[in-house]
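Problem 12. The chain below contains 458 residues. Write out its predicted structure in C-alpha cell notation.
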Amino acid sequence: MDFVINSSLITTRNSTLLKGKQLSLLSCTLIVTIICQNSAFGVESKNRRAKPAPYDSVFPSTEYLGPTIGVPNLDPIYPLNQAIWDKLPQLKNDQIRIYGWINPSVNASSSKHSNIPLSYTIVPNNIELDQAVLRIERVPDTVQTHSIDWGFRLSNIYGMDYRYTTSQGYFSGQLLEHNELYGYDPVEAYTQLYIPSIAQGLLITAGRYISPVDIEAQLAPQNYLVTHSLMFTYDAYTQTGINAAIKLNDTWTVQLGLHSGNDVAPWTNAASIPTYQALLRWISDSNNDSLWGGMNSFNGGKFKGNHENLQQFNLTWSHRFTEKFFTATEAYYIYQIDAALGGTCNFGPVKSYGGGGGCGPIIPGTSSSVGAVNYLEYKLHEKLFSSFRTDYLDDPEGQLTGYTTAYMSFTLGLTYFLTQFIEVRPEVRYETAFNATPYDNGSRKNQALFITDLIARF
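Solution.
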C-alpha cells in the first residue's frame, strides 16, 4: 500500500496530531511509532509496566533496588554481541546475548604490603586485572502479560576479584586451598521463568545468583565506585537456591526464597539447607522514595564446614531529589554462632597481600556485627557523575575482619564515559579503625588510597 504522510500533521507532544485530517490506519501507526521513538520517553514509555525510572541513564542503573518486573531490557547491544548476531541471526531472534567487559585498575596506597581490609583492590601500589567477564544471557520479557517467558544467565569472571565472589564448592580450591591471587569463578549461573498471570507477574530464579539486597554489586559496571564499602566486603556475595519475586502492584513487590547459605554450594558440608529469605520492595506514590530489604539469610547461624554462616538482615532507603541527584542508605545486622575469628578458613599459604594460614580461633557464643553505608550521587554532565560514600562497620567480636574494632571510610569518585562502551573511574579514599591496627598486615590504624580503573565493554 502506497501512502504519503504530510509532515505538517506531525507536531509536538502538546499540540494536536491530526488537525482534523484523515489518515489511513497504517499511517497512524507509523506516526505513533515515530513520535515514540523520538520523544524524551522513547520506547520505554510505551512499553514499561511500572512506575517511571527514577534515575538518569548516566548512572549504573536507572531503577530502585529490588526486582524490576514490568521493566523492559534497554541495555545496548555490545560490539561482540552485534558481530555474533550478524553471523547467527537465530540468536538475535531468540534474544540471546553474548557480551562482556575488561576491568583493569591501578592504585597508589599508603600501605606497602596489603590493602586489606579494603576488598578487591588488595595489592597496594600495583596495576591489576580486577575482572574480565564473559556473559551469556536471555532476559525474560516481563513487560508483556500474555504468555509465559523464560531466561537464563551465565557470567564467567576471571581476575583478582574472584577472591571475593568465590563460593565454597564452585572451583573454590583456587582460593581456599591455594590462596591464588587470580582465578576463575562462574559468579552467576541461573535460569528464570516468568509467569504473568500471577498477581502482576511472578519471576522465579533458580541456580547461583548474586545476593540481592545490597546497593553495591560484584560486577564492575553495576557499581558507582571502584572500591567497595567495608560493610559490603564482609556480607553475602552469592547464593545458590531458588527465589520467587511477585509484583503485587507498582508499589509493592515481594521476594521469597530458599538457598543453601551465603557463598556455599548445596553439595558442600558447609551448606545449611534450608536457608530462608524474605524481602520486600516498596516505592512511594511520588516515586521519590523506595525501601528494599528484610531477611536475606536465616538458618540458625552455626559456623560449619570451615565456612562462615552469616545470618543477615538488610534495609536500604533510596531518596530521589531529582533524576540527576539522589541518595541511598543501607544498613545491616549480621550474626552467627561459634564463629571463627576472621571468617571463612583459607588453608592456602600465607601471602603478603593477605589470606592463608587456616582457621582463626573459635569465638564462643553469638557474634554480631552492624554496618551502614550512604551514597550521594550527582550528575555533573551528560557523560559524568560524582559519587560520595560514607561507610561504617562495627565488628566487636572480630567475626568478619579478624579485629575487634569499628571502622569508617570516606570515598569520593567520578565516573566519566569516554564512549558508550568505555568509562574511567578515578577516586580517593580514606579509612580508619577505631581500636586496632588492621591495615597493612596489622601494622597500621588507617589507610589512604588513590585508584582509577577502566571498564571496556565488548
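Discussion. Residues 1-45 have pLDDT under 50 and may be disordered. Students who got a different answer should revisit the alignment rule from Section 12.3.
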